[in-house]
Specification:
The complex is a heterotrimer of chains A (145), B (392) and C (657).
Chain A: E1 7-12, H1 16-25, E2 34-39, H2 47-55, E3 60-65, H3 76-93, E4 101-105, H4 111-128, H5 137-142
Parallel strand pairs in A: 1-2, 1-3, 3-4
Helix pairs in contact in A: 1-4
Chain B: H1 4-7, H2 15-26, H3 37-41, H4 52-61, H5 78-82, H6 89-102, H7 108-120, E1 149-152, H8 155-159, H9 161-176, E2 181-182, H10 193-197, H11 201-217, E3 222-225, H12 228-237, E4 247-250, H13 251-260, E5 273-276, H14 290-297, E6 303-304, H15 334-344, E7 349-352, H16 355-368, E8 375-378, H17 379-387
Parallel strand pairs in B: 1-2, 1-3, 3-4, 5-6, 5-7, 7-8
Chain C: E1 9-14, H1 26-34, E2 39-45, H2 51-64, E3 68-73, H3 76-89, E4 97-101, H4 103-107, H5 113-131, E5 140-143, E6 148-151, H6 155-166, E7 171-174, E8 189-190, E9 195-196, H7 197-210, E10 214-217, E11 220-228, E12 231-238, H8 253-257, E13 261-263, E14 272-274, E15 276-277, E16 289-290, H9 296-300, H10 305-309, E17 322-328, E18 330-333, E19 338-339, E20 356-358, H11 359-366, E21 386-393, H12 408-423, E22 426-431, H13 441-450, E23 454-457, E24 462-464, E25 476-482, E26 487-493, E27 495-500, E28 502-503, H14 508-515, E29 542-544, H15 554-574, E30 576-579, E31 584-586, H16 596-600, E32 606-609, E33 614-617, H17 627-631, E34 637-639, H18 644-654
Parallel strand pairs in C: 1-2, 1-3, 3-4, 6-7, 6-18, 7-10, 18-29, 20-27, 21-22, 21-27, 22-23
Antiparallel strand pairs in C: 5-30, 8-9, 11-12, 12-17, 13-14, 15-16, 19-28, 24-25, 25-26, 31-34, 32-33
Classes of the chains: A alpha/beta (145), B alpha/beta (392), C alpha/beta (657).
Bound molecules: flavin-adenine dinucleotide, iron/sulfur cluster (SF4) (4 copies) and FE2/S2 (inorganic) cluster (FES).
């Protein structure tokens, strides 16, 4: 529909979503392309979410969780990190640039950092250009771990 | 009969002035909360009513009367380091100056230096063909593609009879240590650092472009500077392209390394009591404090004493920010205060590492009539004396 | 996601005054979402969270027979609860609700109005899709343990503990140091009333020590917290005191005889204390501890004097640290602050020049129970003729702490008064701005001016002992600008007091991890809402009191402590709390029995049913993080309210525009 990159951001409820709220309360402007979806913990963000987003027209996916050691469910972010590494390999095999997904730790006090990450990531995705990737639903559902 | 407005005295804000300064890169002036720290630390405060805080307030509201004083700041950076709002105050003056220059409202002597910079590539009204004249009877290796270091000499060292002594010392030491370096002679133009501080943006742009062109043409990777101002220009001001990895360093860093590695072994005793003056652009602007002290302390027989205001709190010679090109009346010379501070330590020699400091301090010594008591030498001159076992 | 029938959705868009409507074109948003087939009604209102706003939603639910409700307004972290309650009132399950954040995450962060409007529509469309598959979740309630944990025994912790204990409930008060009291115990007089700190604090400290409902654990630290609101399990480490408090009578002979001396932290290093010591004479409990690092017996097995002189036989060199587990329903954080000693102090000669003091050192010097019995004297014992007090040292300064420490202006004025009263010395007070907003504070400032204190507007840059005139010889010279006359001034004085500020504790990051309450960039705990929930935190059941949340004076500290205790008591008197119903479950038919989820669950909430060969989630233990759902290869593990299809719908929705 537009030449603007589309970016889906998954944020954990505790640190990162609060951090993104803080960017708002501090009135820091950042790229409107970043659309936030709230989940309880970065550990909830499965591969299927990312693949779904990419297949439905997202040009990039941002994942944010609490800093290591700060996860409100003890170690969900650690799981997210491990999954992220696998995910990068996986999308590379699909022929997608691994730079299209990015994992960042954002604490509740890092509103400015969140905004910076959002802008930087948007720039990066702009450089990569539109993705236009379509994958059959079955692969998305079946993708494990 | 006079009108009321002729009788009443008041100042009215002229907010356009502030806006102009902000647009000329002076935006930090908005942050000032008028605490006066800058005024208290500014070296000028010791000599005259120079008040950066008040000037900032006047500029911010566009009250007339800041024009003349805006040329005073010597860019010593003390205020910037201490300002609780981290305001780059010298930059504010630089912005104001660029506007005043555009209005042709600058001190005449400065105009002479700036014109010379534009026409001859040096501030000393000397011909650009004569830059390398000192090498006629004093051969210096030429820089060719592949030479490790480009020795960037500095206009003052190339043209001024006093400073030529210093650059000759530099060349001798580098030769002794078999450093792989070269000189580009008449292709060099002024680094432009002080021109920029003086608000001369265009002149600076022209000079920096010329140098950048040559650096690129000769694929320069490492630059060795003698003047901290050149160092500052290359390290903090020049706009190198992404991927152009040009390393700039100051000679004192090279010397310190050579001494540490025992390539240079200063064995000759120097039986003088000396003190060291931190040039603002070597110290505060570029954080180089230890190397010169290490070099001095490595010299046998020397007695090294420190002044009160040293390192981060060093007291400016008065040469920065265009100060060296301005005329100052007697009793209003920062260098005088610095020289007297040195005399009070009992030192016979002031060691320093900047051509402008040499000029300013020596002028003050002459003006104060104490040239019997104290003299100025550079780190290079000191080191060479020891290496050659000669008197300082 | 073959929903049998489209559920009727109502969308309510809030203007938030002009906060949202000045950026997002509300009219366009309402128009666009009205066109979505699922949407039965779309309305907007100035303040959706206000009573009329809530009533509007209630009315539409009833009249239109809405089955799902969406409010597009501020962050769900602020008002999700409010709107869920509207649904409950209207007999709809509260999970049939979704909140869309078009303020913090759209209007306030987007520069371009059209883009912001577009984003709002996309976000709302996502919610419209998502709510279709929302399921009614039952209320989950748990009992609240009526015990309370208070961490930190300064005036904040003391006050909170007493309030709760007086209401008849058990309090565990954990204090790191050997005595309660905190910073207030170090002061003599407090602004603006100048009443004596000891007179108002000591009785409270004693009450804490003797209260039947307070279990005071000094010299102790919290090392682990697990559980959740209503049911926390806390592990406290009692550090070895080497003195058996059951036996010790507090006679103090040991402290008299102990030969090993070290500098006293309570007296800011102005005097020494012994290796066996109480923090100060009125300490609570008034029994000593042995500082193991400095005790010659414990370090070198030499000495043993205290054991010999103790008639009660209370000294136990074999004492070991002890781990104690306690259960509580809520936690009050009252860990206070650290007195700042920024690097900049060296510009003012601190540590090099005699008679340059920090504010806290001056507090001790002035304290009737301090090293000089309250005489304000110079190092040589003489009285100062002139004193300079320098405001804002290391505060309001981007090189150190950017924030204003809030109490320094007032305590500096207090110092001026004390110096004038006790010594008659001339006082020069250098300030940038005097901040005296508080009850009777401005009046106090007026009083100080009447007392002939010389106020100079300007920040001091330097203190030196190098004279330039005869008057300056042997003096400390304070260099600054009087900005009101635009003159540089040098003032020779005998004593300089540096007013440095309140800083967060060095271990704030560790504490933040332990209690799962985030800190701001300066290390202070973040409140749930800066205005509307200044005592609650994002972690339910954990409250903040006093200066651990930011610079505060004593009245504010006490007020927040009383607030925290009343919130803890509210929980207790309710007896039950509702907790998130969004847990996970495993669909029996889909589970392949691979056990992957079991290894991933951080709460060990999943067990393997050996008979059925499938994994089963224990909902009482599950916290709803969703890790299992993200892990399960067969899609059997599902996270309630965050099901795959719900997130998928949301993804499609946010990408729709
Ligand atoms: C020089 C100075 C003068 C002042 N004068 C005044 C005045 O005159 N009037 C006024 O109203 N205010 C004054 N104030 C402010 C006053 O000090 C504070 O408002 C008040 O002391 C805050 O109390 P608190 O309980 O929050 O913190 P604190 O007094 O710091 O108490 C915190 C307690 O928690 C303990 N603790 C810390 N970490 C842990 C942990 N991890 N585990 C267990 N325990 C822990 C500490 O040991 C301490 O006992 C002054 C401040 C200063 C710096
Ligand atoms: S030190 Fe900085 S804030 Fe203070 S008056 Fe100077 S410029 Fe303004
Ligand atoms: S840079 Fe130096 S000379 Fe210029 S205003 Fe600041 S302190 Fe004064
Ligand atoms: S001597 Fe014994 S009883 Fe007395 S204070 Fe010391 S430990 Fe306690
Ligand atoms: S949602 Fe989290 S806590 Fe609950 S069972 Fe799954 S992994 Fe365990
Ligand atoms: S709660 Fe933030 S990453 Fe787990």
């Amino acid at each position: 529909m537009s030449e603007e990159p589309r970016i889906v951001a998954f944020l954990c409820n505790w640190c990162s979503y609060t951090g993104a709220d803080l960017a708002g309360t501090s009135r820091i402007k950042y790229s409107h392309n970043v659309r936030i979806i709230r989940v309880m913990c970065s550990g909830r963000i499965g591969m299927s979410f990312i693949l779904k987003a990419l297949s439905k027209g997202a040009d990039g996916v941002l994942i944010c969780g609490c800093h290591p050691g700060d996860c409100h469910y003890q170690e969900g972010n650690d799981k997210a990190l491990r999954r992220y590494i696998m995910l990068k390999n996986m999308i590379t095999q699909f022929g997608i640039e691994p730079e299209r997904i990015r994992l960042e730790w954002v604490s509740a006090s890092e509103g400015d950092r969140f905004a910076k990450i959002a802008d930087e990531f948007t720039e990066q995705i702009k450089k990569l250009g539109p993705l236009n990737w379509k994958e059959s639903e079955s692969v998305v559902k079946g993708s494990a771990v | 009969m006079p009108t009321t407005s002729e009788l009443m005295k008041f100042a009215a804000p002229m907010l356009e002035m502030a806006q102009t300064v902000v647009e000329a890169k002076g935006e930090e002036l908005k942050l000032c909360y008028q605490c006066g720290t800058c005024t208290s630390v500014c070296p000028w405060g010791n000599l005259k009513d120079f008040n950066p805080r008040k000037l900032i307030e006047m500029i911010r509201l566009g009250f007339e009367g800041f024009e003349d004083d805006s040329w005073k700041c010597v860019n010593c950076k003390l205020c910037w380091d201490k300002c609780p709002n981290q305001i780059n105050i010298p930059q504010i003056f630089q912005s104001v100056r660029s506007i005043l220059l555009a209005w042709n409202a600058c001190p005449p002597e400065l105009n002479i230096a700036l014109t010379s910079l534009r026409d001859e590539g040096n501030p000393w009204q000397e011909s650009k063909e004569k830059r390398d004249e000192w090498t006629k009877d004093f051969p210096v290796p030429a820089y060719e593609q592949g030479t490790e270091y480009l020795l960037f000499s500095c206009c003052t060292n190339d043209y001024d009879p006093r400073n030529k002594k210093d650059i000759k010392a530099v060349v001798e030491i580098l030769n002794m240590a078999k450093v792989n370096y070269g000189y580009i002679g008449n292709k060099e133009v002024c680094c432009g650092d002080i021109a920029l501080s003086a608000g001369e943006n265009e002149g600076y742009g022209m000079l920096s472009n010329k140098n950048l062109e040559i650096f690129r043409e000769l694929a320069v990777k490492k630059i060795l500077t003698i003047s901290p101002h050149c160092l500052n220009a290359f390290k903090n001001r020049y706009e190198f392209n992404e991927g152009e990895e040009v390393q700039s360093s100051h000679l004192v860093q090279t010397y310190a390394k050579l001494i540490e590695d025992k390539v240079l072994e200063p064995k000759g005793e120097i039986k003088n009591k000396v003190t060291y003056h931190d040039p603002c652009y070597l110290g505060r602007h570029n954080d180089i404090y230890d190397e010169p002290r290490f070099i001095i302390n490595s010299i046998p027989g020397i007695e090294f004493v420190e002044m009160n205001n040293i390192r981060e709190n060093s007291f400016c010679c008065g040469g920065g920010g265009g100060g060296c090109w301005l005329e100052t009346v007697k009793g209003e010379r920062l260098g005088d205060l610095r020289v007297l501070e040195a005399v009070e330590t009992g030192a016979e020699v002031i060691i320093t590492a900047c051509p402008y400091c040499v000029q300013m301090l020596e002028a003050s010594i002459l003006g104060l009539g104490i040239d019997e008591k104290i003299k100025v030498r550079t780190v290079s001159e000191l080191l060479l004396s020891s290496l050659k076992n000669e008197e300082l | 996601m073959a929903a049998s029938k489209i559920k009727k959705v109502g969308v309510f868009v809030c203007h938030c005054g002009v906060n949202i409507s000045s950026v997002v074109n509300i009219e366009k948003v309402v128009e666009a979402v009205s066109k979505l087939p699922e949407v039965t009604v779309a309305r907007d209102y100035k303040f959706m969270c206000s009573t009329p706003g809530q009533e509007l939603i209630g009315k539409e639910i009833k009249e239109q027979g809405l089955e799902r409700v969406i409010v597009a307004a501020c962050s769900p972290l602020l008002h999700e609860e409010t709107f869920r309650r509207v649904l409950v009132k209207s007999d709809l399950n509260q999970y049939f609700f979704q909140m869309v954040n078009i303020r913090e995450q759209d209007a306030w962060v987007t520069a371009d109005k059209d883009k912001a409007t577009q984003k709002a529509i996309a976000l709302i469309s996502a919610a419209v899709k998502r709510v279709q598959t929302h399921e009614p979740l039952p209320k989950r309630e748990v009992d609240v343990d009526p015990n309370v944990l208070v961490i930190g025994g300064g005036i904040a912790g003391i006050e909170a503990s007493l309030q709760i204990a007086d209401a008849g409930h058990k309090v565990y008060l954990v204090e790191k140091q050997a005595s309660v009291g905190g910073h207030m115990a170090q002061f003599d007089k407090t602004f603006p009333t100048l009443d004596c700190a000891a007179c108002i604090l000591t009785p409270k400290m004693n009450s804490v020590g003797f209260h039947p409902n307070i279990d005071l654990m000094t010299y102790s630290e919290v090392v682990d917290i697990s559980g959740y609101i209503g049911n926390f399990e806390v592990t406290v480490r009692k550090n070895p005191k080497y003195v058996d408090y059951e036996k010790c009578t507090g006679c103090g002979v040991c402290m008299e005889k102990c030969p090993s001396k070290v500098s006293s932290e309570f007296d800011e290093g102005l005097v020494e204390r012994k290796a066996i010591y109480t923090l100060f004479p009125q300490a609570v409990p008034n029994k000593p501890v042995i500082d193991a690092k400095n005790c010659t017996y414990l370090t070198k097995e030499k000495c043993g004097v205290c054991q010999k002189v103790c008639e009660a036989g209370a000294i136990n060199y074999e004492d070991k640290e002890e781990l104690v587990k306690v259960k509580v329903g809520s936690i009050i954080l009252a860990t206070g602050y650290t007195f700042a000693k920024p690097d900049v102090l060296k510009d003012y000669g601190y540590g090099k020049l005699d008679n340059v003091l920090t504010a806290l050192e001056f507090e001790r010097l002035n304290n009737a129970a301090g090293p000089t019995d309250g005489e304000i004297t110079l190092k040589d014992g003489s009285k100062p003729q002139s004193v300079a007090i320098l405001h804002c040292i290391g505060s309001r300064d981007k090189n150190y702490n950017e924030y204003c420490s809030k109490v320094c202006c007032m305590y500096s004025l207090k110092f001026a008064h004390l110096v004038r009263e006790k010594t008659g010395a001339e006082v020069f007070e250098f300030y940038i701005d005097i901040r005296s907003p508080g009850k009777a504070y401005e009046e106090f400032y007026t009083r100080i001016r009447e007392e002939d204190v010389h106020l100079i507007r300007g920040k001091v840059a330097q203190v030196t002992d190098v004279p330039v005139t005869d008057d300056e010889k042997g003096k400390l010279v304070v260099i600054g600008e009087n900005t009101l006359t635009a003159q540089r001034v040098r003032v020779p004085v005998d004593m300089v007091i540096l007013s440095t500020g309140i800083e967060s504790n060095k271990d704030a990051a560790d504490m933040s991890r332990l209690v799962k309450v985030a800190t701001d960039k300066d290390g202070f705990f973040i409140e749930r809402h800066p205005k509307m929930a200044p005592i609650e935190t994002a972690s339910a059941g954990i409250f903040i009191a006093g200066t651990c949340a930011g610079p505060r004076d004593i009245p504010e500290t006490v007020a927040s402590a009383q607030g925290a205790s009343s919130l803890a008591l509210k929980l207790i008197s309710k007896g039950k709390v509702e907790i998130e119903a969004a847990t996970a479950w495993i669909v029996e038919e889909l589970c392949a029995g691979c056990k992957l989820c079991i290894s991933m669950c951080p709460y060990k909430a999943i067990e393997f049913d050996e008979k059925k060969k499938i994994s089963v989630i224990n909902e009482v233990l599950c916290k709803g993080c969703g890790t299992c759902a993200a892990t399960c290869p067969s899609g059997a593990a599902k996270a309630r309210h965050f099901k795959d299809e719900q997130i998928f719908d949301e993804i499609e929705g946010v990408l729709s525009l």
